[in-house]
Amino acid sequence: MDKSEPVEYDIFQREDRLSVRLNLAQYLSTRRVEQMKEGIDLAIEYRLVLSRPKRFWGAEEVAKSSNLVKIGYRIITEDFSLSAGQLGLGDDRHFVSLARLHQFLSDSIVVDLAAYKELGIRRQYVLKIKLTCISLTNFNLAANNDSSEEPGSPVKYLFTQFLRLTGFGRDEYTVETRPFSLSEISPED
Question: Does the residue 57 lie in any domain?
Answer without folding.
Answer: yes
